[in-house]
Amino acid sequence: MCLTEIEKIPKPVVACAWNVAPNMSIKTKSEMTYNARGGVMEFLLANHPLDCPICDQGGECDLQDQSLLFGYKIGRFIEYKRSVEDKKLGPLINTIMTRCIHCTRCIRFLDDVAGNFVLGTSLRSREMEIVNYVERLITSELSGNVVDLCPVGALTNAPYAFTARPWELRSVPTFDVEDGIMPAIEINSRRQEIMRILPRVHEEINEEWVHDRSRHAYDGLKRQRINACLKKNPDGSYKDIYWQEAFEILASKINEVSGEEILGIIGEHMDLESVTAFRDLLYSLGCENIETVSNTIKISPDFRSNYLMNSKITGIEESDLILIVGANMKIESPVLNARIKKAIRENDASVALIGTPDYLSYDYLHLGNSLDILHDIINKKHPFSKTLEKSKFPMIIVSSLLLQRNDGEAINALIYELAQKFKMIQPENNWNGYNVLHFNVGPISTLEVGITTDIETKVKPKFVYLLGADNYNRDKIPDDAFAVYQGTHGDEGAYRANLILPGAAYTEKNASYVNTDGRVLLGRISSTKFGDSREDWEIIRALSESLGKALPYDTLQEIRYRIAELAPHLIKYDYIEPYNLGWTTKPRNGKIDLNWVNDTVDNFYMTDSISRASPTMARCSEFLNPEKNTNFIPEIPLRK
Known about the structure:
Blueprint: E1 3-6, E2 13-14, E3 26-27, H1 31-46, H2 62-70, E4 93-95, H3 105-114, E5 119-122, E6 129-132, H4 145-149, E7 155-157, E8 170-175, E9 184-190, E10 193-199, H5 212-216, E11 229-232, E12 238-241, H6 243-255, E13 262-266, H7 272-284, E14 290-292, E15 321-325, H8 329-332, H9 334-347, E16 350-354, E17 365-368, H10 372-378, H11 384-390, E18 394-399, H12 400-403, H13 408-421, E19 425-426, E20 431-432, E21 434-437, H14 442-448, E22 463-467, E23 482-487, H15 492-496, E24 499-502, E25 511-514, E26 520-523, H16 536-546, H17 556-566, H18 609-612, H19 615-623
Parallel strand pairs: 13-14, 13-22, 15-16, 15-18, 16-17, 18-21, 22-23, 23-24
Antiparallel strand pairs: 1-2, 1-3, 4-7, 5-6, 8-9, 9-10, 11-12, 11-24, 19-20, 25-26
C-alpha cells in the first residue's frame, strides 16, 4: 500500500524501499498511484472473508481504512476463497486465521521483541499459512501485543471478545501501577465498567509495549472486592458496619496503645497521597515504625540515587555492558527485558547474570548463582573483571526483591563497592550505572516522602495498620495484636484483619506515583468506586479527625501541597528531576546469610491482590506458567 509514482519512472515504485535523491518529484495522489494501490487492495481482499459485522477488529481495522480509501466497489475475484484452520495460541489470543493477510508482523514481533520463537510460515503462494509448528502456545509475557499489531481480525483479544465496539468506549490515558516501571496505558470503559486495557506510546518508559498482567488483570478489579466496612466477630465471621462506627473502634484501639506499639505496613500499590497522609498520621501518634510489604528494603532515602534506576530506562540503550544481579528480567519486568534485547540487537550490548539461569529471550553470560562471585569480581579474581574494566558505560541492575532479604543491606553494600571499583558512577559523563529495579511502586513512594525504613524497635506491636498490604511478612504481626486492613480485595491482608476498611483501586482515584526511574506519573479515574469504598488518603484524613489530630488538608490539591513541602521535585509530572548522579550514600556493611540467589517470583500472572482475583490470570497461570517452571536448570539457547 506504499506504492507511489516518481517522475520519469514508468511504473509505480515501493516507497519504503526506494532511496530519495535530490530534485526527485514524487506523486502520492496521482491516478497511477491510486490504481496501483487499488490493485494491491484487490489481492489483499481476494481471500479475506466478509466478517466485518462480527469481527472484533471492526471500527479500528487497518484493512477497513485502506479499503475505504483505495478499494473498488465491485470485486473481480470469482474463484473460491480459501479457508484456514484456526490455531491454539493460548488463553489470551483468539485466532481466525482465514482473515490473515500474511503481513508477518506477529512473527517478527515474537522473534525480534519478545524472543518467543513460536510462529512461522509454512507452504507458499495461495497455500501459505502462519503456523505454530509443533502446536505450542505463546508463552511470552508480552504475547498480548500481537493483537495490537495485527492489522486485521486474525488475532483478537480473547477476554474482550464480543463484549463491546470501539465507538462505545470511553478512553482514559493513565499508567499501570502493577509494574514498577509503570507503563503508559489506555483504559477503555463503557458505563464506568472497564472493558479492556491497551498500551499507550511512551518512548521513555514502555515504548509501545505492555505485558499481559497489565493488559488483562483488570477483571480482578470487580471480583473479591471489599465493598463495606467489616468488623470481625469472635466466631471469625464478619459484620457490616458504618464508617462512623469503624472510626470509633479504630480511635478506641489506637488510644489504648503508645506510639511505639503501633506498626504501619504500606502496600505495593500505594500512591504518594496515601503514603503522605499515612506518614503524617502515624508520626502525629508518636509512631515511626513504618515498613513496606515483605521485608523492608533498608536503603537510605537521603539521596534518590540510593534507590532509583539512575541510568533511566532509556539508558539501557546507551550501555555497552549490563550486569543483572538477582533479577529475572523476563518475569520481574518483561517490558524492560524487551528493551535490553533491543540494546543487544541495535547496539551490540553484552549482558551478564548473577542469579538463577532462565531463558531471557537473548544471549547472556551466566556467571553463577552465588553472591561470592561479586567478591571475586571486586578482587579481580574473576575473568569478568577485565570485561568490566574495558566497558565505557557499564550498568548494574539489582532487583529490589533481592534487597528485601534479611541480608539485603550487606548485598547492597557489596554491589555499591563493585559500582565504585569499576567506575559505573561517572558524574563527569552524566552517567550512573547503579540501578535498583523495583517490582512495586509502593516502596518508592515510601522512600520519596522521606520515610526511613531501617528503624527497628524491640517493642512488640499491639496495633498493626495494613495500608493495602497483602504480600506482607506474617511474622511481623503478633497473634494478640489488633490489625486493621485498608484495601481493595479480600486477600491475605483482609484475612488477618480484625477490622476492614474498603479502599479505592488505582483505576478509581486520581493519584500520583513514582516509577522505578524516579518519574512522577499521574493515575486518573476511569471507573466508579466499588460499593462504599473511599480513596485511601481520605479515609486516613477522616480517621485523624476522630483521633483529635486532624491533618491539615481536606482536598487533593491541599495534600499535594503537603507532598511538595516534603519533596518539591514530586510536583513535576512525567519528568525526572535532575539530581547529582555522584551522590550515593554508602550502605552499611554486614554479613551475607545466604550466598545462593533464588528466584523470588514463581508465578508472573499472580503477584498481587488484583491479579490473584482475576479469572483471566488464573487461566494463564494454569495453561502458561507450568510450561516455564522446571526442576532442572534449562539450557540457555544461543539463538538471538
